[in-house]
Amino acid sequence: MHETWAHQLEAWHEFFILLGTAGLTLSGLLFVVISLGPRVAADRHAASVRAFVSPNAVYFTSALVVSALFLVPGLPPTVIGVLLCFGACASLLYLLYTRAHQQWRSSKLPLLDWIWFVGLPPLGYLLLLCAGVGFLVDMSFALYGVATSLVLLVIIGIRNAWDLVLWTAQKQHTK
Fold first, then answer.
1. What is the pTM of this model?
2. What are the pLDDT digits (tens) for 108-119?
3. Which of 1, 80, 96, 132 has a 20 to 30 Å separation from 166 between CA atoms?
4. How many CB atoms lie within 10 A of CB 93?
């Protein structure tokens, strides 16, 4: 069992290197973007910033942390499963804490923004939770669930960060 697991992880090594690097790089770029428009971010209520800006950093950090987890040598699948389940549940609780749905309704954002800011992120973390359970019950396709979840979270983060860049630029232009 251990040799099969080690071989599977070896086959996925470059994928996790790439995704972890992307998560780290995009997190840094997000901080640069926010620092370019500090007055716009400061003018907004803290709840709005928490609901729409901070989760993007969490999506990118999730990709980084999960990728790093899979690069730790000798980590058994059950430990990875427990950590994935814990991380996915914590991330889902964080999404509830941000109250993005409430902010979306009060800001009257379009349906497309609801899909990207409110609908898809929980789906990504639910998929990660299912993959974690897959590791616990020794399902061979669990790695594919992790990969799909991480790629989805990175895409969500990229799209939402771009939306925030456009919004920030519009706000700075109107002032």
1. 0.85
2. 778 888 888 888
3. 96
4. 10
How many whole angstroms separate alpha carbon 101 and alpha carbon 105?
Answer: 6
Average of per-residue pLDDT across 120-149: 95
Picking from 126, 123, 128, the residue whose alpha carbon sits closest to that of residue 84 is: 128
Token digits of residue 146:
């992790």
Q: For residue range 68-124, list pLDDT tens digits in order.
A: 999 998 899 999 999 999 999 999 999 888 876 676 667 677 888 888 888 899 999
Q: What's the per-residue H, E or C state across the chain?
A: CHHHHHHHHHHHHHHHHHHHHHHHHHHHHHHHHHHHCHHHHHHCCHHHHHHHCHHHHHHHHHHHHHHHHHHCCCCCHHHHHHHHHHHHHHHHHHHHHHCHHHHHHHHCCCHHHHHHHHHHHHHHHHHHHHHHHHHHCCCCCHHHHHHHHHHHHHHHHHHHHHHHHHHHHHHHHHC
Burial of 37 per CB tally in 10 Å (0-12, 13-18, 19+): middle
